[in-house]
Design a protein that fits this description.
single chain; 465 residues; mainly alpha; two-stranded antiparallel sheet; 2 strands
Length: 465
Amino acid sequence: MATNNTGTEVRLREKKTTSRQNGNHQPSINENGLLDSSGSTVTTNPRSSTFEAAFFFGLNIDEALSSSENLLELFYNACKYNHLELVKRCVEEKKVNINEPYNNDYPLCIASHKGHIEVVRYLLAHGANVHLKRELNLLATRGNHRLSRANLTYGDSALSLAIKYGFEDIAIDLIERGSEILNENAEFEKSPLQDAIRLNRIQVLNLLISKMVKMKAWQTADDNLLLQKKGDILRQCLINDQIDALKIFVPHVWRELNSDFMFMVLNNLMLKNKIQSDKAFDVLETILEAIPTSRLKMYDIGDLLRRFLHILQAQFVTINDDRIQILYLRTALLFSILKYHETIDFTEYLELLDAYFRAIYNSVESTGEGVNQIYEYIVRFYENLILMGHLVLTRNSVILKLLECEHVQRMQPIDMYLSWRARNPFLLKEKCRLMVKNSLTSYKRSTIDKLKLDEDTFSYLFYLR
């Protein structure tokens, strides 16, 4: 392997061994892949030096193998610097133990770390243990709160290293050989699976997900491993806004899209730094679009609504700056879900809406600031429910229940709006919109795109936030 192409001189490191103390110099490979057989500084021409030419100042591989007393170091460095011929000679002629550690590291780990795929494949073919992990140097990691004797007792596996440094072909080979997807006791934290999501290694993640579907859950007999770890996977996807990972993950777990799952999504996306960018809505719509059924149907939508409105109320009370704007944005997340969901009879949840509207109204009524904005917000909330078909005011029972709600009786503009809306339920275009929505097999963006509508019609039909 050629050294770095530079005109400067290369200073070779000394090798500190017991034999040197006795006056016998042994070869060692420096950081550039060169061997040094003396304690003095040696100058070479980096343009012409090669891995083989550097052995003992020009001795060939045969002489290096026969002269070296520390074959394990020679073998380890051959793996590190991608010298496949020397790796083969060490294994086949000198019978070096492939799985023996050197300096708290393993040949397979260093080859995976450096991305030497041919060396990795050779080691795997000759019995390298894919489960070995580097021994953690606790002294070197003392300043890192994530690495301590209390919570971690091992370093990276070959698979973790391949994923971290972007060598997906190597990672795939290691997975196929049975390398562990998770850490000890099926821990997700700092596992190859977490790194694949965090670093957006899509090829690797695709394989990992397909493997987990077929694996038994740890210490349970009911679920597969993917369902057992769906919460950890979803959380990591949301933390890093990994849309590609969600496209792979969601189709395998869509049957588990209950209120807990969706609330975890919403609770993460409602964070102020996320909700003020389009990323939050891109992530949510990616999840909803990835569901393989025509329309979303959650059996516990009422539980999701209750928890979501509670968070909306709590965050609205504690926000000072731009809280009306942020309230609109956070509420838009809920309507993004309702856009994909089957029709819901919201008369079942009027008590929830009543308590929510009264709470946010009370928070501004005492100051007298923002009251009209709250009126407008509530009107738009109801308008969206009506336009999506989740609240049908033409039914006498529905409008009567609404007019009995305490918030409607306290807020005259809301009473006037609902009374007017009940007498004038739909404009012509609103009727057309509901007719089209109810006739489509799916209300997803991809389905509506096929209609080839102009931009204005699409925006109205798809009902953008």
